[in-house]
Write a structure and sequence with these properties.
The structure holds 2 protein chains of 2 kinds. Chain A is built from 6 helices and 5 strands; from the N terminus they run βαββααβαβαα. By secondary structure, chain A is α+β, with helices and mostly antiparallel strands. By secondary structure, chain B is mostly helical. The chains are: A alpha+beta, B mainly alpha.
């Protein structure tokens, strides 16, 4: 099974209330063949830093969040190793370009963690590879810079 | 259900974007936030520094640096810091010398690895 680039989108909420508006928009993008919502996990980080998954809201697939949790969870064994001062997880020491939910979600926050497949980008990525291109950087423009860009496009 | 966040590799939409330019590696970030302290060797990246055309080697943890900055004198060689074998002799010019002294200071402080120092110095003198 081949996937296009998969983005992890972490959105924080002050309270665990999810209106469904975001999911509706993602559904629209999926129908357009642009983005596919693979899964979304609702998670709460307690004030003392512990992560707990939240139950699936009524009206949604009961299995929602299962794949994301399996992907992002290192398991209780790692927690024990960390408590004992051992390795963080199964990543080799020196793997510098890493991330985890610990960096993204502050204590006392509820968040939705969505896995989004950018279907449109799959052929682009393949074309870059076939042409011998090497990714050097990619980022998103800051809203201020995007606004400046909009002005440049109009001028 | 309790969830213990796993460390995952970062990637970009078009592939694995390397460290380059103004980004800080964990070793560099540690050195900045812990001035004067040796950087744990486990924080050094094992792979090549893409884009500089160099092969990164395992760098030893540098010793504490007494001073960092453009005016910091280059300290004598010690057990933890060695001059890169590939580093050509410094070219003449006060500006270049000052830049190299600054780079040396950053290397002593652990902000740059020896291989990064060698690569940058080599480009300056090319």
């Amino acid at each position: 099974m081949s996937l296009g680039p998969v983005q992890v989108l972490v959105v924080g909420y002050e309270a665990p209330t999810f209106s469904g508006e975001v999911l509706d928009e993602l559904e629209r993008l999926r129908e357009a063949g642009i983005v596919r919502l693979i899964d979304v996990l609702l998670v709460m980080r307690t004030a003392d830093g512990v992560f707990e998954t939240l139950p699936v809201p009524e009206g949604h697939d009961p299995g929602m969040g299962r794949v994301t949790a399996a992907l992002l969870d290192a398991g209780e064994g790692v927690a024990d190793a960390r408590a004992d001062g051992g390795a963080a997880d199964d990543m080799a020491p020196g793997d510098v370009r890493t991330w985890s939910l610990e960096e993204a979600i502050p204590p006392g926050t509820t968040a939705a963690v969505a896995l989004l497949e950018h279907v449109w980008a799959g052929p682009l990525r393949a074309a870059v590879g076939r042409s011998g291109g090497v990714p050097l950087d990619e980022t998103w423009l800051d809203p201020d810079d995007a606004q400046r860009l909009a002005g440049l496009m109009q001028g | 259900m309790r969830l213990v966040p796993r460390q995952l590799k970062r990637s970009g939409m078009t592939g694995s974007v390397p460290y380059y330019g103004g980004r800080l590696t964990p070793a560099q970030a540690y050195a900045v936030s812990h001035p004067g302290q040796p950087v744990p060797t486990t924080l050094y990246a094992p792979g090549p520094l893409v884009g500089l055309g160099t092969q990164q080697v395992a760098a030893p943890a540098p010793p504490p640096a007494p001073a960092v900055g453009a005016n910091a004198p280059a300290p004598p060689p010690s057990a933890g810091v060695t001059t890169p074998a590939t580093l050509p002799p410094p070219a003449s010019g006060a500006g270049l010398a000052a830049t190299l002294a600054t780079l040396q200071g950053l290397t002593e402080a652990g902000v740059l690895t020896q291989s990064e120092f060698g690569a940058i110095a080599g480009r300056l003198q090319a």
